[in-house]
Amino acid sequence: MEAQVRIASDSAGKWSPSSEASDIVKSIHAMLHPRNIVLVGATDKPGNYAERIWNNLIKYKFEGGLYPVNAKRETIWGVPCYKDFASLPDKPDHALVLVPARFAVQVVRDAAAAGARSATIVTSGFSELQDDESQRLATELQAAIRETGLAVTGPNCLGNLSAGERLFTNIDDRIVTMEAGPVAIAGQSGAIVMAVRQALEDRGVGVGYMVTTGNEAGLETPDLMAYFAADPSVRVIVVYLEGVRNTKVFRSACKAARAAGKPVIALKLGASEGGRAAAMAHTGALAGSIETFDAISTREGVIRVRGLDELIETTECFVHAEPPKAARLAAVSLSGGKRGLLIDAFSSAGLNFSPLSKDANDKLAQMLGPGSIIGNPLDAGFAAVVDPSVYMQSIKIMIDDPDTDIVIIDAELPKAPHELRERNLRIVNEMAGAAEGLAQVAATYRGHAGPGSRSGRDQVVDRLRIPAQGSAGSRLKFQRFGARDA
Hints:
Elements lengths: L22 H10 L3 E5 L8 H11 L5 E5 L5 E2 L2 E2 L13 E4 L3 H14 L3 E4 L10 H17 L2 E3 L6 E3 L4 E2 L14 E5 L2 H13 L4 E6 L8 H10 L5 E6 L5 H13 L4 E5 L4 H11 L6 H11 L2 E3 L2 H12 L9 E5 L2 H13 L9 H10 L10 E2 L1 H6 L1 H13 L5 E5 L10 H14 L5 E5 L11 H8 L4 E2 L2 H14 L1
Parallel strand pairs: 1-2, 1-5, 5-6, 6-7, 10-11, 10-12, 12-13, 13-14, 15-16, 15-17, 17-18, 18-19
Antiparallel strand pairs: 3-4, 8-9, 8-11
Helix pairs in contact: 1-6, 3-4, 6-7, 10-17, 12-14, 14-15
């Protein structure tokens, strides 16, 4: 298979930053949409990173040029191997650096001198180590990146995904959908970022971009956030942070995302002393206090989640629903116990269920009898169990109430013996779509973020774009986002 430049047929229709865009946004766009990729340090030793990344680029049919570089080889992987940048048949664009740390700095300088616009440094052995030599190399690498102006991710990272370009410079051998979906992920831990991508794709959520930033000697996660805020294909921004070096840049990126109507969902390491030490050992990051991060992120509208399950569910929620305009909540249940739990959960997060309008209250009181609790949340009770159409009508009354932004329902909708649950979910979806001013209907289900937890019912919920959350936490994040923007 010849490694040569191949021009994508649909490139003319792809978004590009405007001339007024920042230099950072333009340089990241070049990195995620390169004309070619040069693998420096190509080797066919079994199991090595270079070969695994090459295999992924071939498997997913990256449409640009692919050029392996190794001064000691003339061919590798069945294609020509080049001695250096000068011997390439084309000017390099993106350099993938896989050489030992002591050679990486010179590769960056050589790549820039040959015309490259960006680089990913997979190699480790820099600031994450505390010995003098590693720290010296880290300082020299930062100087080289600064002086050359290259857009660089890493070192100590695991590559990137740009689904629209069919670019996957990562070692992961699990199947990638290559769907240019609405989610963009960036973070310092390659393993965490890869796990998030996999979990989202297992749940039918497409990931358009995935960027692992490692030690962040060049580009930092907030720089990626700014790019994702600008790219119209992105609707939800997910970040894993070990430390934030420049709070001004972070706040600016958050403001850009908020102005574009894109939620930023953040998983932050460092809630404990041990977590902060882990961040230093992993990428050399100074994690800082979680209280300081919370103060900044809350002010800028960032949604901080406490774990991976919550991150996946909150992301899925925003993918399937537009952010609510406000936090005027309503809920319809069949259980007095669940009604009470909903009140407790939302109250603990500073959110409350407002009293129903007189019109909605009167309609529900007329329709429902003994065994129901008329109010908000509503326990439709015995009448809805006996006649499922009563439950559906209760939902409609809540949806039609002009003082309601979000209606929470059970995904386990009651039904007559001959009916399918999918039919009732579709009816609710149509009700919500026809209502004026309603932000969303959210369906609760029993489950967790693991790939095996999704039943046929939940997949129906996904297709209907009704956000389904397995825990109260993700619902609260969703509604609090609306409350901040109210």
